[in-house]
Every structure is written in C-alpha cells, then in structure tokens.
UniProtKB/TrEMBL annotation:
Annotated protein name in UniProt: RNase H type-1 domain-containing protein
InterPro entries in UniProt: RNaseH-like_sf, RNaseH_domain, RNaseH_sf
Domain of life (superkingdom): Eukaryota
GO molecular function: nucleic acid binding; RNA-DNA hybrid ribonuclease activity
CDD domains for the chain: RNase_HI_like
Every RNase H type-1 domain range: 72-201
Length: 293
C-alpha cells in the first residue's frame, strides 16, 4: 500500500517521542506493508484545465477538442510588489513568459514615498518593460487591494498624486489587447515580495548582481569524515531494524518482514545513526552492537 500525503506520517508513526495512543497506532499499522510518499501535482487535472481554458468556443463542434499550440494560447503573466520601510523603497517584478522563463527585477527607489506609491511604481515600471518586450500580457497580479480596486473602479481616487498614478497606469494598460489586474495574497506573491524587500534593504550606493546557488550536502558531517576512520561491523539483530527505519528495506522472508514492521515503532534512529529503544518507564535505551560489548 502506498499512501500519498503532504504530512510526515512516516516519521510520526515510527517515532517513540509521542503519546501511547500514537505509539499504539504505529504498532498496529506497522503490521502492514505501507509506504509513505509525497503527493505530487495532479497532472491529469492540469491537462483538463488547460484544454478547458484555451479551447476557443467559436469553432465547429468537431474542432473543439483540438488544442492550439502553447505559443498561440498561453499569455504572459506579471507579479509585482512594492516594499516601503525605514531603509528605503523597493520594487519587485516577476514577468513569466509563455514557455516558463522568468524575468526578475529588483528596483530601489531613490525618493521617499508611501507604500501605495511603491505599488503603483512597481506596476508602471513593469508595464513599461512588458511593452518594450512586446509581451502579450494577460494577467497582472498585485497584492495591493487599493491599487487593484482603484484600477477596476470599485474605489474612488481622491488624492491628486494617486489620481495621476491611476491615469498613467490605465494609459499603459490600454497598450495591451486584453489584460486584467487581479488581486493575489501575499503568500502567493512571495517571489516578487522577496525582490522588493531585497531592493529596499541594499545599500543604494552599491550596484551588484547577486547569484543564488544551491548546496545539496552539508560542508561538515559524517559523510565527509567517514573516510578518515571506518569501523565495518558485521550484521546483527539491529541491521534489519535500521534498514527499515532509515531506507524502508525489509527482509525477503515474509515472516521476518512482518516481525520487523511490528516491532519497528518501538525503536528510534537518531541523527547520527544510533538505534534507541523506548522503555516502558520513558527513558531511551541505546542499542549496542554485539561486537562492541
């Protein structure tokens, strides 16, 4: 059985750090061959949504099931955000191309203004960039409720300064065939928000390019020092329990595999790879290899 979940059920049910109820559940479920895997995206539903959104409705019924090429149907998307704090103002712009490429930009403003002005500056700056790239912009996502509602006409604009920004924004929006400014929550606009925060925090006198790299492994640890001192120990009663808790590996014999699944919730593996067993009174007992006794 394979359980697809976003929650750490494997670590929860196989750990001895919790209450008796959870430990009991882990012991009962351990008798079954259950594998926990992360739940991935539902690709079939994405394909259905894609066909439903980009199939023209004015075509003949026999042709409605045909999907146009991506280059002709998908549009450019724009995510913007403005950040204002005591250190300065910054703009974050993320422009997504139809093929998936991202164009990121962080702009620091050299004048003092409110957070609403920063949001409008981010909108104007990004629209000018989209026009220069001849992008067929379709959606603009902004987490400023004031800017979105003023552009849609739901909010009245009384301040002269904000009215000037609104007039300029509408003028630039008319340069596109069909564009819509939609609100977005801050948690879904984190990419643009990070760029805006970066632009507002950096020193204005310095101009720099910051590259972001990924380090997959720690700089220090057992992986690096393992070649210095090795201690090859023979297999013992601990080996199948460690293999199951660490790598989900079970013995080939059915009866032995069922036994390992049943007793595994009583044990716990520390970060340094040591096996511990929880006693009835509460403390952990470290399991020692027979060769070290």
């Amino acid at each position: 059985m394979v359980v697809l979940t976003e929650h750490p059920l494997k670590a929860l049910l196989r750990s001895a750090d919790f209450s008796r109820c959870i430990t009991k559940w882990g012991a009962q479920l351990g008798a079954y061959d259950i594998k926990y895997q992360p739940r991935t995206s539902i690709k079939g539903q994405v394909l259905v949504d894609f066909i439903a959104e980009f199939t023209p409705m004015d075509r003949e019924p026999s042709e409605r099931n045909q999907v146009l090429p991506i280059q002709q149907t998908t549009k450019w998307k724009l995510y913007i955000d403005g950040a204002s704090n005591s250190r300065g103002l910054g703009l974050g712009i993320v422009l997504t191309a139809p093929q998936g490429q991202l164009m990121e930009q962080a702009v620091r403003l050299g004048f003092l203004a409110s957070n609403n002005v920063a949001e409008y500056e981010a909108l104007l700056h990004s629209l000018r960039n989209a026009i220069a790239l001849s992008a067929d912009l379709h959606h603009v996502y902004c987490d400023s409720q004031l800017a979105v509602n003023q552009i849609s006409g739901e909010y009245a604009t009384k301040d002269d300064n904000m009215l000037a920004y609104l007039v300029e924004a509408k003028r630039l929006l008319r340069e596109f065939k069909s564009v819509q400014v939609d609100p977005v929550s801050k948690d879904l606009n984190g990419h643009a928000n990070s760029l805006a925060s970066l632009a507002s925090d950096v020193t204005p006198e310095l101009r720099r390019i910051i590259s972001v790299s990924v380090q997959d492994f720690p700089s220090v640890g057992r992986e690096i020092n393992s070649g210095v001192c090795t201690n090859n120990q023979a297999a013992s009663w601990m080996s199948p329990i460690l293999a199951y808790l660490k790598n989900d590996e079970l013995p080939e014999e059915r009866r032995e595999a069922d036994r390992i699944r049943r007793i595994a919730p009583r044990y716990w593996v520390s970060r340094d790879g040591h096996l511990y067993r929880k006693s009835h009174s509460g403390p952990y007992f470290r399991c020692v290899h027979p060769d070290t006794v």
